[in-house]
Specification:
Blueprint lengths: L16 E3 L2 E3 L6 E2 L1 H11 L15 E3 L3 E2 L6 E2 L4 E2 L3 E6 L2 E7 L3 E5 L4 E3 L1
Antiparallel strand pairs: 1-2, 2-3, 4-7, 4-11, 5-6, 8-9, 9-10
Family: Belongs to the YjdM family.
InterPro entries: YjdM (IPR004624), YjdM_C (IPR013988), YjdM_N (IPR013987)
Pfam family, one: Zn_Ribbon_YjdM
């Protein structure tokens, strides 16, 4: 019985083939190895300032004072934010959340730590 090859991670095509240690997709011309796929998945994880992986619904704390563009208010260091939502980075802002006293804002994960 032949081993089944993985579908293409880019286009999900089932017509992949092996080329030495790599896999190749003839539909979109994507080439990958198991190691490169793991590295891409690791890079896609959103981590806090200490390197902890963040998930939707986590509670975080702001690690430095953050000025808000277009407003005179500041998010103070130590502010606790509950129930974050991870989003695709928009100008580096990969967290959507509601900050007490400020409202709905986008934060960069590099300025928070997981509680």
């Amino acid at each position: 019985m032949a081993a089944t090859l993985p579908n293409c991670p880019k286009c999900d095509s089932e017509y992949t083939y092996e080329d030495g240690a790599a896999y190749v997709c003839p539909m979109c011309a994507y080439e990958w190895t198991e190691d490169s796929l793991k590295e891409e998945q690791e890079a896609a994880l959103i981590k806090d300032a200490n390197g902890n992986v963040l998930n939707d619904g986590d509670d975080v704390s702001v690690i430095k004072d953050l000025k808000i563009k277009g407003a005179s208010s500041v998010i103070k260091q130590g502010t606790k934010v509950k129930g974050i939502k991870l989003v695709d980075p928009d100008d580096g802002h990969d967290i959507d959340c509601k900050v007490p006293g400020v409202g709905q804002v986008g934060l960069k994960s590099e300025f928070v730590k997981k509680l």
